[in-house]
Amino acid sequence: MSVTSLNAFERAEIARYWQWHKTGRSGLFPSVVGKEFMVHITTDCSAPVECKKLCTYKYTRESKHTIDVDLGLRAIEQSYKLGYRKIVFTGGGEPLEPASQSAFFTLLEAAKRYGFLTMLITNGMFLSPEIFPRLFPYLDFLRVSMNGDSHFWEIYGHIVKSKNYCLENNLNVGIGASFLITPATRHDDILKYYETLIGYIDYVDFKMAHLKKTREGSFDLNVKAYEKSIQFIRGLRFSNALASERSILLGRKNIQYPFCYYCDFQLIVQADGKVSFCCEHAYDPEYEKGDLNKQSAVEILENRKPQEIGEKCFRGCAGETFNRIAHEIVEALT
Predict the structure, then answer these.
(1) Residue 5 contacts by C-beta under 8 Å, 6 or more apart in sequence?
(2) Mind giving me the DSSP string for 7-34?
(3) Which stretches of 282-328 are assigned E, i.e. beta strand?
(4) Which positions ≥6 away from 114 have C-beta within 8 Å?
(5) What are the angstrom distances between the C-alpha of 56 and each of 33, 60, 128, 208, 264?
(6) Is 88 helix (H, G, I), strand (E, B) or coil?
(7) Do residues 142 and 109 lie in contact, with contact meaning Cβ atoms separated by under 8 Å?
């Protein structure tokens, strides 16, 4: 993605955002471009061991938080009034954990009533026909995240049934698969996953696992170790098979951003009600910016300061693509 892939309105909105920043960040920036509201349903997760091992949020498991429904409903109402139009239900943990499904479905239905574009990120373990009637009529996008061979074959049938249900009921739900890969992932396996799923998904995204990412340690992605895998995936030339775009960007010249533009467009409500602007560092006390148990979303956002690029930040994070686009526009304006 580059500046040229944005339409004129989107480019103008980022330029307007930069003007808002330069003139003191007074009030709330009203643009809807790039704004994403993320809700973590729970920190609990019953994923396979191989999946948990590389999970970004593995250190949250013992807390066993499930979002308070009333707090979630308030957050949805407030975020809509603030201009957010896309909502992503994710973790923390697994949103479809049986003990958390009631909260998830209540919030999903509420979000759709407001008119949000809705997305669910799930490990697929509990993606069963019993819940389809409460899920897919209210969902716009489904992304199933997988890690490892046994995880893939355990949920492959769930993806097939999901696609067939949507087709049979004329539901236009985009379905994607996201695979975590490590330098040890065999190219034959990458090809096998894609060819098995073709016809049931709209895209496959192969993403590098955060090999060294720990709560206290280095956040280096060890990019060099992934070069062969990235080249292999790009060489497949399948229209809907992606080496994660932010992974490809790692091969380009490093950019020193003045701060994280991406964090200015995110609002992340953790399962404990606390708020972060960075999805890579949710549940890290250093990145917590407020608490919806005590504050409104407006109060939190009115005091939003630029998120510095800190020692725990790393190239290839979720904001890499947006940061590059925003920086290209900002550089052209200065």
Answers:
(1) none
(2) -HHHHHHHHHHHHHHHTT--S-----TT
(3) 288-291
(4) 76, 77, 80
(5) 26, 9, 25, 12, 21
(6) strand
(7) no
Q: What is the pLDDT of residue 32?
A: 64
Residues in the chain, overall count: 334
Amino acid found at 144: V
Query: What angle do the packed helices 227-236 and 187-197 form, to 10 degrees?
Result: 30
User: Given the structure tokens 């349903």, which residue do they identify?
Assistant: 41
Tally of CA atoms within 13 A in the half-sphere of 276 that contains its CB: 19
Say which range, 36-40, 60-64, 284-288, has the weakest mean pLDDT: 60-64
Distance CA 260, CA 320 (A): 9
**Cα gap 178→186, rounded to integer Å:** 16
Q: Dig out the tokens for 43 from the structure.
A: 């920190």
What are the DSSP E strand ranges found in 203-287? Answer: 203-208, 241-243, 266-269, 274-276
Residues 290, 280: Cα–Cα separation, whole Å: 17
pLDDT 10s digits, 176-219: 998 888 778 888 988 888 888 888 988 888 777 764 444 444 44
pLDDT in tens, 24-45: 888 887 676 668 899 999 988 8
Phi, psi (deg, nearest 5) at residue 163: -65, -45
CB 313 within 8 A of CB 219: yes
d(C-alpha 147, C-alpha 50), whole Å: 7
